[in-house]
């Protein structure tokens, strides 16, 4: 439908009319909807971003017995898996992940490792290059057998980090299948290999701290989206895993303390009387941690290595993985946290080398993370959350994580060390929410857990540790990365293993966090964003979301069209670079009206527009004057009434009109935030939505009406847009350097 009605020029100016502009050549459709990029909605995943009425997912339950040899570092285990086929199709084989095979000599990772020789390279950095090995370590699993429930051997084939097990008959929809695996591998020195898990050896006292991760053969995900997710583990892309219930028995030296996914089932058998009393007291203590194993007790155990064994039993329900830590060096503290109607226990394990920092901060950081994340998503549902100290590490698993942050030998530490330690504990504990519960596919989409989690980590530090808050994960903090050469970048939506190491951290962690910060603070506003983000989290808790489910849920729950945002921030390598190209200052001429014709006429001596102009670089030329004529009645078409031209002129009489031409240099469409500084020294912030670029993504012109004279215009005054070039954000242009220096000083 078209409306053939012309309104008065003055009215159009008042509402901020932007002159018609031709669509530029090479239009890329930055506001085009994402429909052609996202999967077609169906009964499994709906167009709203919610799970559909036919949504299903598999389940894998584990019963595991494992033993740690503290002398040889050999890990030996047997596991029984009960696999539930909830899919609508029959399965003739099953796929399992053998992640430890990444350290086998013939792994794809080893064969495709790249590098170059340079002079004077430190020996520690030469490990792994050109096949050079710094130890005689032999990595990878030894599979001893795979048997069905009757003890009959099952055929299997190992393909690098994946293992296919052939079933004697197809596993039909709704059926379950039980089989067992016996295996072993030698745990590795993490200082040499730098992988997740591993051990650290302490030469001063001859002890180990073990962090066991990816330590048992685990089921691959089979889902509606791609069938078996059996993409090889190459090291960078992490894990896609199945929810299930676990019963795990862990045999270690009798003087070890063990922390693991789940709750201890036999505390009376493995703890001393004093430890048990402290442990029970911690479950009811909310104000500060209770020390269950003291530093003095741990230090004493370091001197005497027990030859006896003890078996710790743990149980966990509805988790996607299981990890554990073990050492005689562990100090152990714990306290209860109130989350809704539950009281999970926050617990920390750390050697004396972590003190005093860890005793002061670790369990406190767990509590802060659980509380903030629960507020923004859903109440933490698990009974336990561990933080375990491990040098140079940050890694997450259900209910347990391994974190760095070691003070100096004399116990001192810097503010930077404190900030790093608190942040990594918050971050890794936060992973309980993403992806341990909102169970995205880390092998494919790093940002779906790391980016969302980095955003909430930043929010936790901002609200709970304001003195430690920095620009990490914010629009301001991502600017140096966004300034990089676009042709050498990959977008956030590139596969995890295809990201360059130099950009993996930014694209997986800080750029998506910065994007979400911009989305919350500038595009949507905190109230709408928080409601939509919580909706997504609650829809997909204990399920397997994909990128489209997140994008669609955020729009569905907010009524904000964000396709332009996802397209720019997640699918492209564009950056934000807005520029004030030109500003023209206008005032309406003083007019007299002919009483007979009621037509305005110019006073004698008035300057015409052509006689007075500013020079396009500052306001020194004064305002240009222009005339507002009465509207020709023909312009109203079929309407019987007319607008009051005199009232329109009156509304702008004596006011200042600023026609601002904005240019999108970086290519990433963005909201516009303008700071106006007036002649009397006052300031005003004005915000324009990104849709201002919808008809021209390169350049727009907009008219602003101001009561007072403007002396300075600044884009993005609070560094909230991730604008990579602030020098072109200022008008008048003659004050760019001084105004920019002032901005840097104030921010």
From TrEMBL:
Gene3D superfamilies: Neutral Protease Domain 2. GO terms for molecular function: metalloaminopeptidase activity; peptide binding; zinc ion binding. The keyword Cell membrane does not apply. Residues 607-618 have a biased composition (Polar residues). One of its GO terms (cellular component) is membrane. Residues 597-624 are annotated as: Disordered. It comes from the Bacteria. Residues 597-606 have a biased composition (Basic and acidic residues). Residues 393-569 form the Peptidase M1 membrane alanine aminopeptidase domain. Residues 1-20 form the signal peptide. The keyword Hydrolase does not apply. One of its GO terms (biological process) is peptide catabolic process. Keywords: Signal. InterPro entries: Peptidase_M1_aminopeptidases (IPR050344), Peptidase_M1_dom (IPR014782), Peptidase_M4/M1_CTD_sf (IPR027268). This is M1 family metallopeptidase.
């Amino acid at each position: 439908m078209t409306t053939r009605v012309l309104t008065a020029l003055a009215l159009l100016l008042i509402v901020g009319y932007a002159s018609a502009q031709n669509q530029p050549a090479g239009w890329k459709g930055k506001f085009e909807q994402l429909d052609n990029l996202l999967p077609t909605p169906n009964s499994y995943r709906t167009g709203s971003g919610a799970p559909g009425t036919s949504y299903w997912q598999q389940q894998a339950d584990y019963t595991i017995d494992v033993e740690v040899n503290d002398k040889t570092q050999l890990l030996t285990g047997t596991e029984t898996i009960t696999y539930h086929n909830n899919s609508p199709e029959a399965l003739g084989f099953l796929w399992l992940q053998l992640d430890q095979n990444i350290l086998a000599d013939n792994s794809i990772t080893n064969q495709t490792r790249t590098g170059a020789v340079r002079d004077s390279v430190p020996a520690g950095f030469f490990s792994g290059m050109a096949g050079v090995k710094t130890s005689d370590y032999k990595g990878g699993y030894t599979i001893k057998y795979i048997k069905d429930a009757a003890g009959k051997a099952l055929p299997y084939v190992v393909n690098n980090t994946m293992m296919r097990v052939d079933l004697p008959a197809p596993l039909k929809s709704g059926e379950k299948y039980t089989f067992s695996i016996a295996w072993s591998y030698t745990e590795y020195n993490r200082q040499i290999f730098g992988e997740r898990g591993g051990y650290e050896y302490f030469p001063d006292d001859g002890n180990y701290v073990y962090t066991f991760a990816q330590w048992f053969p685990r089921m691959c995900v089979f889902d509606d989206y791609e069938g078996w997710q059996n993409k090889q583990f190459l090291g960078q892309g992490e894990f896609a895993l199945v929810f299930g219930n676990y019963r795990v028995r862990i045999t270690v030296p009798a003087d070890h303390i063990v922390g693991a996914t789940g709750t201890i089932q036999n505390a009376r058998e493995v703890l001393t009387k004093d430890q048990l009393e402290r442990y029970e007291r911690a479950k009811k203590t909310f104000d500060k941690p209770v020390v269950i194993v003291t530093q003095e007790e741990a230090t004493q155990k370091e001197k005497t290595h027990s030859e006896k064994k003890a078996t710790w039993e743990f149980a966990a329900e509805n988790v996607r993985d299981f990890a554990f830590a073990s050492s005689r060096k562990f100090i152990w503290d714990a306290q209860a946290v109130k989350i809704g109607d539950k009281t999970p226990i926050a617990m920390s394990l750390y050697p004396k080398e972590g003190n005093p920092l860890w005793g002061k901060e670790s369990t406190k950081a767990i509590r802060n993370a659980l509380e903030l994340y629960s507020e923004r998503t859903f109440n933490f549902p698990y009974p336990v959350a561990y933080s375990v100290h491990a040098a140079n590490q940050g890694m997450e698993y259900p209910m347990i994580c391994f974190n760095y942050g070691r003070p100096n030998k004399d116990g001192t530490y810097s503010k930077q060390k404190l900030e790093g330690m608190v942040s990594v504990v918050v971050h890794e504990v936060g992973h309980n929410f993403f992806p341990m519960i909102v169970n995205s596919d880390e092998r494919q989409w790093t940002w779906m857990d790391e980016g969302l989690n980095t955003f909430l980590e930043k929010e936790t530090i901002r609200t709970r540790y304001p003195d430690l808050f920095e620009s990490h994960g914010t629009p301001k903090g991502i600017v140096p990365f966004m300034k990089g050469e676009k042709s050498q970048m990959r977008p956030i939506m590139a596969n995890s293993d295809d990201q360059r190491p130099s950009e993996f951290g930014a694209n997986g962690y800080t750029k998506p966090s910065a994007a979400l910060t911009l989305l919350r603070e500038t595009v949507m506003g905190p109230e709408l964003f928080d409601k939509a983000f919580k909706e997504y989290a609650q829809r997909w808790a204990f399920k397997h979301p994909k990128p489209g489910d997140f994008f669609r849920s955020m729009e569905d729950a907010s009524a904000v069209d964000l396709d332009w945002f996802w397209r720019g921030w997640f699918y492209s390598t564009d950056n934000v670079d807005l520029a004030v190209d030109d500003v023209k200052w206008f005032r309406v001429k003083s007019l007299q009206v002919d009483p007979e014709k009621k037509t305005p006429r110019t006073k004698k001596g008035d300057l015409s527009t052509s006689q007075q102009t500013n020079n396009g670089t500052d306001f020194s030329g004064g305002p240009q004057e222009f005339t507002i004529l009465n509207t020709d009645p023909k312009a109203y078409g079929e309407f019987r009434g007319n607008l009051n031209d005199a009232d329109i002129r009156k509304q702008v009489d004596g006011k200042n009109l600023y026609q601002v031409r904005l240019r999108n240099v970086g290519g990433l469409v963005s909201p516009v935030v303008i700071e106006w500084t007036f002649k009397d020294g006052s300031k005003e912030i004005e915000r324009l939505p990104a849709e201002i670029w919808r008809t021209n993504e390169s350049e727009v012109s907009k008219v602003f009406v101001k009561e007072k004279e403007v002396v300075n215009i600044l884009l993005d005054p609070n560094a909230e847009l991730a604008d990579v070039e602030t020098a072109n954000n200022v008008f008048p242009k003659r004050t760019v350097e001084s105004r920019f220096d002032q901005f840097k000083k104030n921010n």
